[in-house]
Amino acid sequence: MCSIIAQLGLDFQIDCVEFSTSVHERFRNFACALYELNDLGDKNGGVVIGKYDYEKNQLVEIDRCTGPGVYQLIWVGDDRILTANSDGSLRLAAQTRTDVWHWFSSVPISNCTILSVLSRNEMNFVASDATGYVHIVSLDEADLQLEKSWLAHKHSGYFKSACEVWSLAKDPNSYHILYTGGEDGLLKLWDCRIQLLEAELVSGFHQAGVVCIRPNQQRSHILVTSGYDDLLALWDIRNMQQCIDFIDLNSAAWTIRWDNENDQMRLLCACLSEGIAEIGVENESTLKLTRKDQRFGANLVYGCDWLCAKDNTIIFCTFKSKSIYLAKFKD
């Protein structure tokens, strides 16, 4: 179970929340993605930038940009944000001074929804869309430019309908290696140095769409994936023929965050209808459910992040109840 420290209610449904890597003495910034489908079928939303005030124990909204729905966002360094938008665009925001943000114009990347975005470094990004394509994009000052695109996932069979690409990850050992996860249930590895016609590796372990791929930055041979089959799988990237271990979470882990502060290996998972879960990784070989709070599952928990893993404080967002929570796992 978690004890709630602070709560911030918003007027849009929330599908992603992430802390900035920069930690100030009195506060820490976060950003959350807003997405809502209205009665006319329009996808609306935007981004809220906020901060957690350590002294007041409050989550505070400091800026907002509304427009198309935002499926995912990432921090680029300490003071920029890149968003994946429902109108097929990417958008960059930059902090100009404390609590003041500048929003650059959206840049069209695809003719359909951008579902995921990944930073390879602060000048190069990867985005995926709802028709199976993956796009590599470069940043020149504030100008985003499309470098290349390829069809990464497609449904098999006679009717080859569009296949959404839900998840992206980069290999910690190689700038050129990317992982993609699709609605088709496939996990794929791509080498961007060669012609991108076929994946270098394809795994069909998951029996439903692959929703999250998360390498471990400290133990760079370790990778976890999650899918709509409710399974969380542990992999050694040196041998991807089969996973090392897997665990059934009873709901898809839409967001996974490694604990990068402690020696022990563990994961924080936003498990949609099952709420928040902590998963321990023993001896790089065994997944074990160590903590779980199901109270918020009815409102769908899509996003989560660590505030301070050393003292078990976390942030997570609920989709239906439109709220962000700062909480602490009870010992």
From TrEMBL:
Gene Ontology MF: a single term: diphthine methylesterase activity
Xref: Pfam families: WD40
> Is Ribonucleoprotein one of the keywords UniProt gives this record?
no
Q: What is its EC number?
A: 3.1.1.97
Q: Name one GO cellular component term.
A: cytoplasm
What does the record give as its pathway? Protein modification; peptidyl-diphthamide biosynthesis
Record-linked PROSITE patterns: WD_REPEATS_1
Q: Which GO terms describe its biological process?
A: protein histidyl modification to diphthamide
- The answer on whether this UniProt entry bears the keyword Methyltransferase reads no
Give the reactions, separated by semicolons, that this protein catalyses.
diphthine methyl ester-[translation elongation factor 2] + H2O = diphthine-[translation elongation factor 2] + methanol + H(+)
Q: Which UniProt keywords apply?
A: Hydrolase, Repeat, WD repeat
Query: What family is reported?
Result: Belongs to the DPH7 family.
The record's PANTHER family line, in alphabetical order, gives: DIPHTHINE METHYLTRANSFERASE
Full protein name = methylated diphthine methylhydrolase
What is the source species?
Answer: Trichinella pseudospiralis
